[in-house]
Design a protein that fits this description.
alpha+beta, two-stranded antiparallel sheet, about 40% strand, globular
């Protein structure tokens, strides 16, 4: 099953590690450092150029190596969470 993150971006639900609210999560130094490192390593994908409301950490297999990819989404973490628990997941 797939979760629509906004625009034309979907991810497989089984690959989602976590869905985080941008406002509350980025208060933590750990979260800011994590996002900074991920961006420097080219592992951040902006789903839209709208104001970001959440970020989603997923595991993906690239070149035979499992890596964490961070998606920045204009959708709230609550909206995404509701979608994972409803029929709005694409099968």
């Amino acid at each position: 099953m797939y979760l629509h993150l906004g625009q034309e971006t979907v991810v497989d639900v089984k690959n989602i590690i976590g869905i985080y609210d941008m406002d509350t999560s980025t208060v933590s130094k750990w979260s800011r450092d994590f996002l900074t490192v991920a961006e420097k390593e080219g592992r951040v994908v902006n789903v839209s150029y709208e104001l970001p409301k959440s970020f989603i950490v997923c595991k993906e297999l690239k070149d035979g190596v499992e890596k964490e990819i961070v998606y920045i989404s204009p959708l709230s973490s609550q909206t995404l969470l509701r979608r994972t628990q409803s029929t709005q997941i694409i099968t």
